[in-house]
Amino acid sequence: MDPRSIEELIEVIKEFFPDNTSIVVSDTKEYLYYQPSKKIDLKIKPGDAIPEGSATHKALDYGQKINSFIEPDVFGVPYYGMSIPLMEEGEAKGAITAIFPQKPSPFLTNYITIKIDDCWYPVKHNEVIYLETQLRKTFVKTMSKEGYHRLNLSDLELFLSPDTFIRCHRSYIVNIDFIDEIQPDSHSTFLLIMKDGTRIPVSQRYASYFRRSLGF
Predict the structure, then answer these.
(1) DSSP string spanning 2-46?
(2) Secondary structure class of 92 (helix, strand, coil)
(3) Which of 22, 70, 106, 117 could disulfide-link 99, Cβ–Cβ 3.0 to 4.6 Å?
(4) Does residue 54 contact residue 22 with C-beta atoms inside 8 Å?
(5) All domains of the chain, ordered by start, with CATH?
(6) What are the residues whose beta carbons fall under 8 Å from the beta carbon of 34, sequence distance 6 or more?
(7) First to last CA, the chain
(8) In this predicted model, what pLDDT tens digit does every residue of 48-104 receive, in sequence order?
(9) How far apart are CA 38 and CA 148, in angstroms?
């Protein structure tokens, strides 16, 4: 990951998190960038190896976004981490992690704003049926509206509650509340029939995580 890409990613992330958030970016083995906050500083330095048990390590190991409280034996300081792997062709190439002194309130906002033609519309998270990667933007579908968000799917995933939303494919995140049926499918392991009739694949990469998360 080149320095310019990291700087651009950090500028986007800063817009969503309060000042008491530390931000760290890594590849698969070591940290590349670290911006501490006044409230919490893990003393990470670029080039430091990613320790086992850290939020970043968990996200890379699972290949999924994680929200987790991390005990003080990892960095000497307890923290709450929100980490998401940066995927490329189905493989994790790095991760970006937001570090909080305590668990943040469930989402900084309960709305996601989508663009339809030349206007913007805020919609509640719980109204979103699914999100899909389309032309480097994210297509957002609700029961009454559909439009685009400027962030790509992986960046946007960081701000969605894992209690409601689940990644099932590199191109899709679905709202569990809108899954009507889960069917076996030879091409994608599972096929989701959403309540609006949309058919969404669960890829082999995400199948075990999907089953474990939904308990079947």
Answers:
(1) -HHHHHHHHHHHHTTS-TT-EEEEE-SSBEEEEE--SS------T
(2) strand
(3) 22
(4) no
(5) 3-100 (3.30.450.20), 111-214 (2.40.50.40)
(6) 22, 23, 24, 25, 42, 44, 45, 46
(7) 37
(8) 999 999 999 999 988 888 888 899 999 999 998 989 888 877 788 899 999 988 766
(9) 35
